[in-house]
Amino acid sequence: MTSSRSAWIFAWALLAPAILYVLVIVAWPLVETFRLSFTDASLRKVTNYVGTANYEKIFNETFFGVILRTFTWTFFSVALKMIIGTFGAVLLNAAVPGRYLFRILTMPPWIVPMAIGIFMWGWMYNGQFGMISGLLQRFGLTDGPVAFLAYGETAYWATIVTDVWIGVPMVTIYFLAAIQSIPKDLYEAAWADGASRWTRFRRITLPLMLPAMITMSMLSLIATFNSFDIIWILTQGGPSGSTTTMIIDTYHTAIGSKKYGEGAARAVVICIFLSLFCLAYFRVTRRLQTIGGKE
Amino acid sequence: MSNLLRNSLISVVLATTTALPALAEDISWIYCGDKMDPVHEKYIKEWEAANDGWSVKPEVVGWGQCQDKATTLAAAGSPAAMAYVGSRTLKEFALNDLIVEVPMTDEEKAAYYPHIVDTVTFDGTQWGVPVAFSTKALYWNKGLFKEAGLDPEKPPVTWAEEIEFARVIKEKTGKAGYGLPAKTFDNTVHQFLHWVYTNNGQVIDAGGKITLDSPDVLAALTAYKDITPYSVEGATAYEQNEIRAIFLDGQVGMIQASVGAAFLLADTKVDWGVTDLPLGPSARGKGTLLITDSLAVFKGSGVEDKTIEFAKFITSPKVQEEYEAGGAAGLTPLRPSPAVDAMLAAAPYWKPFVDGIEFGGPEPLFTDYKGFQNVMIEMVQSVVTGTAEPQAALTKAAAALEEYK
After folding, report:
1. For residue B233, which residues of chain A lie inside 8 Å, CB to CB?
2. The whole model's pTM is what?
């Protein structure tokens, strides 16, 4: 009994730092944000509870538009990362001379500090001095300068392209690892049966990569949904709100307009969506483990 | 044991009684920028020498985070004693009981150029000490004027001429006639307000009534619509300094900018001139937006009175003149003086920046300045991109501003 009690105390002593960390760094801010979302907290020194007023206020046509834009922005960005990452991984896996060099060359977008990469893209999108506009004019594809961040539609896609550029290396390397874990004898057997390169990719590589693709999609979905830096540095949510996603909208409200209560309500909505994604992620990974016979 | 307790108590008493006054004699100052101006460094030392036991502790914070840092600290109940803030935020701070009044004597008020004291005045009293002042004028590229067949020595005087000259430059040279910044950025509002104030317009009156939806402001927004086709392509991608960079590169005919552009132009091959902002049909005289930054003294630091004393010292005429003439090149002088007269005589390009003050107007004071700013940016962008007509955009914006006044 004494021995089991001391083991119990020892176990809790070991767990205590982690529990304290979770309570202070994760739980407390979440609870505080949730509490704040029911108040009219602002710069004023007095804060009152206002019930669900903040939630009633934010759920209007504009906010639904922001939610829809966030989902489409996330969808296109994740989808492009998955497609480019898949083909990138297949190419990097090919037995060609210098493939290690190519693998290294895929990394810079991920290694370069994110803000620097984003500023670089900002300059490339510049209509007057930017490389893209310059090339388009040089090849006679446009009559004059094209400022990609000036119009809603081009700014929307420009921010997606930048997000994809930053996200693709990680996806590619992850998928490359997945491809390399596929047993070689499967390919040898298919080759002996006369399967073409495309058939081997479709029948062997893709199905066996699927668990990695699903896992990476879910992780990428969570990260992309929360993506702030890229849009903030390139457009600050403009022009005319065309790149305002939920996280940008929350920042504008809470930090820009100092409506902390209303901003917290927006943050809670984001939190709910992210929790649903996390839940889906855990269910999917659990299911994949079951299929893989690990349970 | 009792000795230990006694010694501990003595230590605590000693520590608190000796440490607290030392803390109380620090004046913390959130200083916006990349580094301390040497003039301020010099006069901080002078003030500290004259005020035994007092120490000024500046914390240099980049422009992007400066305002938010001061605000967040104040809102969290641990304010800096003093912060460098845009005067436009003073009303918001005052209404939320975050800053203390910094009343000026009549003599102090009279020393400033007209309207400057208005930029820090709310509810009949002053809430900050002006420390930096910016006005704008019109720069034109004489080379592009000549290339377009315009007289390079005759800049536009009216909006109608400005729009016409921009059109001619665009059509004859293929380059942008005008640089119109309309990015999602604060100076998009500033630039539009130059047009409002050169047409006797107003956003909000002294009584707090929104006056945006008026013929004078409508004329300004319509002029924006009219000049857009001849402006830098993709106005909503550029803010003021990015437009200035295009002008420095010789790729645009006219821009509105501060005197800082004149210093930068000295290092280019652009043949340029600078003149008063062109006037709208209802103008009473030369105008410009008057932007000031101020030193705000925060409530709750425990050293408010001494901080006010220091704020007035560091912005006193002698220090300010040296600051404006030296490290702070690019700022319009806050007060007329013989030194300013000498500067105007030595560098005539200063003249339009001072002449516009007479009929200039301040940044409007709103209880939620960011809310006001977002509404104005949306209004300008909707007209510039052609998604709304000026009258419709104006009416919508005027209604939206009611929430933030």
Report:
1. 127, 144-147, 150
2. 0.81
Alpha helices in chain A (DSSP H): 2-21, 28-36, 53-58, 61-93, 99-105, 108-111, 114-125, 131-138, 152-180, 184-192, 197-200, 206-225, 229-234, 246-251, 260-291
Examine the pLDDT at B369 and tell me if it is beyond 70. Answer: yes
State the DSSP H helix or E strand holding residue B13, giving kind and residue range, or none if neither. Answer: helix B2-24
Contacts of B182 in chain A (CB under 8 A): 239
Whichever domain contains A241, its CATH number is: 1.10.3720.10
CB contact under 8 Å between A145 and B92, yes or no, is no
Domain that holds residue A82: 58-291
Per-residue confidence (pLDDT) for residue B173, from 0 to 100? 95
Locate the chain B residue with the closest alpha carbon to A255.
Answer: B68
Closest chain A CA to residue B75: A43
Domain boundaries, chain B: 2-133+292-347, 137-287+366-404
Tell me if A15 is assigned to some domain: no
One fold for B2-133+292-347 and B137-287+366-404: yes
- Give the count of domains, chain A: 1
A269 vs A273: CA distance, rounded Å: 6
Average pLDDT in chain B: 89
Contact B227, B256 (CB under 8 A): no
* pLDDT score of B206: 79
- Residue A243 belongs to some domain of the structure: yes
- Which residues in chain A have Cβ-Cβ distances shorter than 8 Å to B377? 238
Tell me the sheet residues that pair with B231. B178
- Specify the pLDDT at position B15: 47
Report residue A87 as tokens. 């083909």
Q: How far apart are CA B159 and CA B201, in angstroms?
A: 14
How far does chain B reach from its first CA to its final CA, in angstroms? 64
A192 in any annotated domain: yes
Three-class SS state of B198: coil
Say which residue, B134 or B3, is predicted with more confidence: B134
Asked if B233 and A146 come within 8 Å (Cβ–Cβ), the reply is yes
CB contact under 8 A, A128 and B246: yes
Closest by Cβ to A238, choosing from B98, B183, B387 = B183
> Which residues share a beta bridge with B138?
B256, B275
The fold of B137-287+366-404 is: D-Maltodextrin-Binding Protein; domain 2 (3.40.190)
CB atoms within 10 A of CB B54: 18
Fold assignment, B2-133+292-347: D-Maltodextrin-Binding Protein; domain 2 (3.40.190)
Q: Residue-wise pLDDT tens for chain A (295 aa)?
A: 567 888 999 999 999 999 999 999 989 999 999 999 999 988 887 889 999 999 998 887 788 999 999 999 999 999 999 999 999 999 998 877 888 888 888 888 988 999 999 999 999 999 888 999 999 988 888 888 888 999 889 999 999 999 999 999 999 999 999 999 999 899 889 989 888 888 998 899 988 998 899 889 989 999 999 899 999 999 999 898 899 999 999 998 988 888 899 999 999 999 999 999 889 888 888 887 776 554 4
Q: Is residue A143 included in any domain, yes or no?
A: yes
